[in-house]
TrEMBL record, chain A:
Subcellular location: Cell inner membrane
GO BP annotation list: phosphate ion transmembrane transport
Topology in membrane: Peripheral membrane protein
Major location (coarse): membrane
Source organism (scientific name): Actinomadura physcomitrii
Function: Part of the ABC transporter complex PstSACB involved in phosphate import. Responsible for energy coupling to the transport system.
Protein name: Phosphate ABC transporter ATP-binding protein
From TrEMBL, chain B:
Keyword Transport listed: yes
PROSITE patterns cross-referenced by the UniProt entry: ABC_TM1 (PS50928)
Protein name per UniProt: Phosphate transport system permease protein PstA
UniProt record, GO biological process: phosphate ion transmembrane transport
Similarity remark: Belongs to the binding-protein-dependent transport system permease family. CysTW subfamily.
GO CC aspect terms: plasma membrane
Length: 258, 298
């Protein structure tokens, strides 16, 4: 069910600001692709163009092509809402719905899309929570508010919520940056497990994390303040971290930046 | 080095006497300000309760003033309570959906467009309308121009003009407080915008919207001027808000208190007490509803 993403000639703008410039890459199915690079280089912006979340911001627009297998996400006939059901997303800060219980948080995507039937929902909720390694911790308090969990648990709840709608691709925007090392480890294990079923793209500032979890790594950089972000190179993670093609990548990875 | 030698040897010692004195002065000032703010409130409550208790009885709550002159003892505000509940109920039924939807439009859809700015401007203008003017408007438009009869509904219309902008503003402020994160989380699940608003944004803002609505209800419940011109006060019980003159608590209080007779004045005080109690009960009920909806209480 995982799908391949092929991006070609992609530009993104915020109003008059050119945020990312001419990005082309292929993201392989059933693998983890990590995006690394300095702050403000457009990693998150690029990630958000992959499920049409970029255009949620007023004045934001995208040019170029994003192919999901053989469908163009930016074709005029495509409904952005339908795209987001296929390409799920986990955010930097855990954001469970505060008015909903743990159960309702996981079931939210299904319920709000009209899936009915308690048996079916129960099954999917359990399956998703197990998938997110959270079931054993919360199975006795599914009716309690999701906001009452710890930060790491909340983030796994958000992952459960994202996989409950059975997407083909899972985008993660710095999913561990607000978490302690133990919760981070739990999420990384989970990513390793999920990649057998999903195409996973993860933005991270943590180089070790990129090295640990990803199969391929893309390095983004920016020429200067106000300039658009660019893709410098994308390759197998082992190659990027040991023998990158570009000098800029090597400087960034070894900490000799700028 | 001279400055160093002048500072105290230990930084853990207590702060200087001057700073302590200033701290104490500020504390006293804060408590005084609080007391000053509470005095009028307590005084109003005390006066209304002590004067209203005389006639706050079963007869008062179950009888109208039908057939009674103002000098007579007995009688009550039943007709006025019915009138106020129906008028304010209708007002709430009209202004809450209209106001909440307007606020949703302004916050979620208009995004500073020309139409949104225009609506915002007129909502501000509406907030400033003196209450008597809203009564005059309904009198001129609904009763005189369209030739409708005096009724509780006409009163509700004039109250709606006053309540609508308050509901819009309160809801707008609450909707703006809903974190963008939550909306994005819902969008990222492939939830359409209107469902996101219905099932994520509005429930998150609900407690705030409820308190805003309750404040607005409390405000219009005490309005007298617009009702004077629209409901054509009666002493008899009229349970149908859509036809014929109706009573209401504020006009009952006004009517009885302008009469130089102790029986009437006592009824006015009891009426004021009933009005305050009604508003309090509604507030408590609204809080209960908001509390029951939270998942933690289950």
């Amino acid at each position: 069910m995982a799908k391949r993403i092929e991006v070609s000639g992609l530009h993104a703008y915020y109003g008059g600001t050119h945020a990312i410039e001419d990005i082309s890459m292929t993201i392989e199915p059933r693998s983890v692709t990590a995006f690394i690079g300095p702050s403000g280089c457009g990693k998150s912006t690029f990630l958000r163009t992959l499920n049409r979340m970029h255009e949620v911001i007023p004045g934001a627009r995208v040019e170029g092509k994003v192919m999901l297998d053989d469908e163009d996400l930016y074709a005029s006939s495509v409904d952005p809402v339908a795209v987001r059901r296929v390409v799920g997303m986990v955010f930097q800060r855990p954001n469970p719905f505060p008015t909903m219980s743990i159960y309702d948080n996981v079931a939210a995507g299904l319920k709000l899309n009209g899936v009915r039937g308690k048996r079916r929902l129960d099954e999917i909720v359990e399956e998703s929570l197990r998938g997110a390694n959270l079931w054993n911790e919360v199975k006795d308090r599914l009716g309690k508010p999701g906001a009452g969990l710890s930060g790491g648990q909340q983030q796994r709840l958000c992952i459960a919520r994202a996989i409950a709608v059975q997407p083909q691709v899972l985008l993660m925007d710095e999913p561990c940056s607000a978490l302690d090392p133990i919760s981070t480890l739990a999420i990384e294990d989970l990513i390793g497990k999920l990649k057998s079923q999903y195409t996973i793209v993860i933005v991270t500032h943590n180089m070790q994390q990129a090295a640990r979890v990803s199969d391929r790594t893309a390095f983004f950089n920016i020429a200067g303040t106000g300039k658009p972000g660019k893709l410098i190179e994308i390759d197998d993670t082992s190659k990027i971290f040991t023998n990158p093609e570009q000098k800029g990548t090597e400087d960034y990875i070894t900490g000799r930046f700028g | 080095m001279t400055t160093l030698s002048r500072t105290k040897s230990s930084t853990l010692e207590s702060v200087s006497a001057g700073r302590k004195a200033r701290d104490r002065a500020a504390k006293v000032f804060v408590y005084l300000a609080f007391l000053l703010a509470v005095i009028p409130l307590v005084s109003v409550l005390w006066t209304v309760i002590s004067n209203g208790a005389k006639r706050f009885d079963g007869v008062f709550l179950t009888h109208s003033m039908n057939g009674l002159a103002s000098k007579d003892a007995g009688g009550g505000a039943y007709h006025a309570i019915i009138g106020t509940l129906e008028q304010v109920g209708l007002t709430t039924l009209i202004s809450v959906p209209l106001g909440v939807l307007t606020a949703v439009y302004l916050v979620e859809y208009a995004r500073n467009g020309r139409l949104g700015r225009t609506i915002s401007f007129f909502v501000d203008v509406m907030t400033g309308i003196p209450s008597i003017v809203s009564g005059l408007f309904v009198l001129a438009f609904w009763l005189l121009a369209l030739g409708m009869d005096f009724s509780g509904f006409a009163g509700a219309l004039s109250l709606t003009i006053l309540m609508l902008p308050t509901v819009v503003r309160a809801t707008e402020e609450m909707l703006k407080l809903v974190p963008g994160d939550l909306k994005e989380a819902a969008y990222a699940l492939g939830v359409p915008r209107w469902r996101t608003i219905m099932f994520v944004v509005l429930p998150t803002a609900l407690p705030g919207i409820v308190s805003g609505v309750m404040l607005a209800v409390a405000r219009v419940m005490g309005e007298t001027a617009p009702l004077l011109l629209t409901i054509f006060i009666t002493k008899a019980i009229n349970t149908d808000p859509f036809s014929g003159a109706q009573g209401s608590l504020p006009t009952f209080i006004w009517d009885q208190s302008t009469d130089p007779n102790t029986n009437a004045v006592d009824r006015a005080w009891a009426g004021a007490l009933v009005l305050i109690l009604l508003i309090m009960l509604l507030n408590l009920a609204a809080r209960l509803v908001a509390w029951l909806r939270k998942p933690s209480s289950r």
